Amino acid sequence: MADEDLTEVLTAVGPRLRALRRTRGTTLAQLSETTGISLSTLSRLESGQRKPTLELLLPLAKAYGVQLDELVGAPATGDPRVHPRPFTRHGQTFIPLTRYLGGLHAYKQILPPRPQGGGSDEPLEQRVHEGYEWLYVLSGRLRLALGEHDLVLTGGEAAEFDTRTPHGVANAGDQPVEFLSLFGAQGERIHVRARPAGS
Which GO terms of the cellular component aspect does the record hold (predicted)? Predict the structure, then answer.
């Protein structure tokens, strides 16, 4: 690999790490606790002030449940297939449907049934972060709390929202709920349908 190519790959690692952490909803403090890497080192790594090394990248790849080549941007092989590596967070399973860490991220998410006796009208924990999200329910009943709104989406229904609006999701039924989630960390919008010109 030429020196300029190596420099380009290493320069891209920081933004990839930041995008991955934000997509997973993890703070630097949480990541530091999980990996044993100091907060300042993680911060400098994401900002490009610290050169990525195997000693730093291996525990990060393990913490995120991704291959090392996903962190450094392995050369394209021409094979378009994605080999998803499911991971579990806050009791729900995420199956990545995209392999690149920049731009839009697509996941299939599976929420287990709510616990027996768990009320469907209990307040949901809501959080905010930069970005824009689009959800499409494949099966089951998905509860979406969005600011003051509390909705239940069923199979075939979609929703989109700015993630700076407080939001949270939960299973509203007694069967697992499966849904697709497309998320743009930089605020990219998903256009569900074209608007006629002049409208």
Answer: cytosol
Domain boundaries, the chain: 3-72, 87-184
Short-list 180, 173, 94, CA closest to 135: 180
Rounded distance between C-alpha atoms, residue 121 and residue 98, angstroms: 34
Residue-wise pLDDT for 127-182, tens only, equals: 888 888 999 999 999 999 999 999 999 999 999 999 889 999 999 999 999 999 98
Q: Give dist(CA 177, CA 181) in Å, integer.
A: 13
Cα–Cα distance, 136 to 153 (Å, whole number): 9
Q: Which residues sit opposite 144 in a β-bridge?
A: 151, 169
> Mind listing the pLDDT tens digit for each residue in 13-53?
888 888 888 877 888 999 999 899 999 999 998 888 888 88
Half-sphere exposure in the Cβ direction for 82 (13 Å, CA): 16
Measured CA to CA, the distance from residue 157 to residue 68 in angstroms comes to: 36
Q: In the CATH scheme, what is the homologous superfamily, with its name and number, of domain 87-184?
A: Jelly Rolls (2.60.120.10)
Find the angle CA(129)-CA(71)-CA(100) to the nearest 5 degrees: 65
Secondary structure of residue 25 in the 3-state scheme: coil
Class of domain 3-72: mainly alpha
For 76-85, the pLDDT digits (tens) are 455 666 667 7
pTM beyond 0.70: no
